[in-house]
Amino acid sequence: MRIWTRASGSADLAPAEAGVALEALRTGAPRAVAAPPTRPWYLDVWIQMVRRKPLGLLGGVIVAVMLAAALLADVLTPYGFAETNLRERFVLSNAAHWLGTDQLGRDMLTRLLYGARISLYVGFGAVALACVLATALGIVCAYFGGRVDLLLQRGVDAWMAFPPLLLLMSIMSLLGPSVLNITVVLGVAAGIRESRVIRGVALSIKEHTYIESTRALGAGHLRVTVAHILPNVLPTVIVIATTGLSTVILTEASLSFLGLGVPPPYPTWGGMLSLAGLDHMYQAPWLAVWPAMALSLAVFGFNMLGDALRDLLDPRLRGG
Hints:
Layout: H1 15-27, H2 41-52, H3 54-71, H4 73-76, H5 108-144, H6 146-160, H7 164-175, H8 179-206, H9 209-216, H10 221-257, H11 269-279, H12 286-313
Helix pairs in contact: 3-5, 3-12, 5-6, 5-8, 5-10, 6-8, 7-8, 8-10, 10-11, 10-12, 11-12
């Protein structure tokens, strides 16, 4: 029988530990070893990302830089997003304007920073609304089933039967372009679409034995769904949120490009591509290059971060 001892004896142990060790040596019983402290799952996910997912880490860095730039736009640039100077029109790059100016002499770096603020505001607001709607709709459909599931899923089918961009354009033309309208519309559209994913996950969780045991102990519907199904769905919700951010930002840019997004003078990346980028593309190509690069980096960052979180949070993909 293997007995765990220390080379220096029990003198360097605490009194209680020393007594346990001497008793174990006297009786020949193995000494119990304390289990190592476990990390919280959210901290372990980031540690595993640093070790195993370099592209996901790169995406997280890009997202963090975007967030910092959007929040500190007032500090990072001395110009206003609508401040014009007709004497400095179409400046390529100089010490005062690192990324040049547009057709009205507005600083391009300033407009990109404030454009990131609007894009992230719309993105996070729409994704938060989408996650709440998708989680509620998916869990209700999966848990109750029957006619409730049939009725709600036929409504989801009817919504998804229309081309997404065409449907969003029709709704925005009726409501009018504004930050609040586009946030709500994109959030509802993404929530209805992603409810299918949450429903599938909740259906698999519903069939587990502990759910049946909870019902047998007399737990009500609210307790089962909130205390037992919802926590197990949260990793999937996190993955949907991170991957959906890139889709929402890209859709907002598309609507702004078509004139149905956030109205001027507020800068958006899609609006910058539409207004100045197309009209003056040959005379000043940087008016289209910088917004396109910012949009591409944002989509790349959120996609890489979402893919890495999916691999780390989904137990079926942890070996990949």
